[in-house]
Design a protein that fits this description.
The chain is mostly helical and 288 residues long. The chain has helices spanning 2-10, 20-30, 37-61, 63-68, 76-79, 84-105, 107-126, 133-153, 158-179, 183-188, 195-225, 230-249, 258-284. Helix 7 packs antiparallel against helix 8 (133-153) and helix 12 runs antiparallel to helix 13 (258-284). The longest helix is centred in the last third of the chain and has 31 residues, at 195-225. The protein contains 13 helices and no strands. The protein is 78% helix and 0% strand.
Length: 288
């Protein structure tokens, strides 16, 4: 059990709370309402397996970088609490689990699962050649609501693309804020790229605010095409207030509250908006 707990901490399993609720929002919108138990089960299984594979691969690829970075040198793969073999086994097992879950949903999900996993794994390389790896991470998480929509409908539509875009800019924005912690390390490290390194912390934070403005706009457009009512719109307004709070918690001169801005606020945004969506549909009679 200790080994499992160490592994879950190493891959930041608790951060599944970011993309999964948006996948469930897309699932509700596609119905509209709750699908059968097994559709819900395999959507959750696919999301968790895909993220586990992505994080296991990231830890393997970034092990040398993590060892050199003061902020990450205590990670389990660096300290030896977990071996590279442990991570490789987890990578293979979770990748296979993702393909299996996708196949249990429908044929289109299965066909889209290899390119989806390619994006998820490919993110880990992007910081080595582009400043815009934050957007690739956003794309990786934005694929979750697209996948959930396809799982329910067996087709691709415009509405979930708007939700995926909202997730893309939301994740890219808070990842920029989070990576400000590594500004000095990234500046001194050859071959690593980031927007804080390119723009400076102040410029990167300004861009993150614009990304989060795009998030709100895309959520509003998604609402217009969704079956959700006024309660969901109020939820989008609450997301806006929480994003304002997130940016108020950090400044170029003080990054000490970045964990509260990153995990707590973003967790409330994703989980809270999902519950608002579910209650909204229930009140509208769409959850039966």
């Amino acid at each position: 059990m200790k080994q499992l707990a160490t592994f879950l901490e190493a891959i930041k399993f608790s951060h599944s709370v970011f993309a999964l609720p948006f996948a469930l929002i897309a699932m509700l919108a596609a119905g509209p309402g709750w699908p059968g138990f097994w559709t819900l089960f395999w959507i959750v299984a696919a999301c968790v397996a895909a993220r586990t594979a992505a994080m296991a691969f990231n830890r393997l690829i970034d092990a040398d970088v993590d060892a050199a970075n003061p902020r990450t040198r205590n990670r389990a793969l660096v300290t030896g609490e977990l071996s590279r073999r442990d991570m490789a086994v987890a990578l293979v097992a979770s990748s296979l689990a993702f393909f299996f879950a996708a196949g249990m949903l429908n044929r289109l999900c299965l066909l889209l699962s290899p390119p989806t996993l390619l994006v998820l794994l490919g993110y880990s390389y992007t910081k080595r050649f582009t400043d815009f790896s934050h957007l690739v991470l956003g794309l990786a998480l934005g694929l979750a609501p697209m996948g959930a929509w396809v799982a329910v409908t067996g087709s691709i539509a415009f509405a979930p693309m708007l939700l995926a875009g909202a997730v893309l800019f939301w994740v890219a924005g808070f990842d920029i804020l989070y990576s400000c912690q590594d500004y000095e390390f990234d500046r001194s490290a050859a071959g690593l790229h980031s927007l804080p390194k390119r723009l400076g912390i102040r410029g990167a934070m300004r861009l993150a605010r614009r990304f989060h403005g795009a998030t709100l706009l895309l959520l509003l457009l998604f609402w217009l095409l969704s079956p959700f009512g006024g309660l969901f719109l109020l939820g989008v307004g609450a997301v806006g207030l929480l994003l304002i709070r997130q940016h108020a918690l950090v400044s170029p001169r003080d990054l000490s509250r970045i964990d509260a801005a990153f995990f707590t606020t973003n967790g409330v945004i994703s989980v809270g908006l999902f519950f608002v969506a579910a209650i909204d549909l229930a009140l509208l009679g769409g959850a039966g």
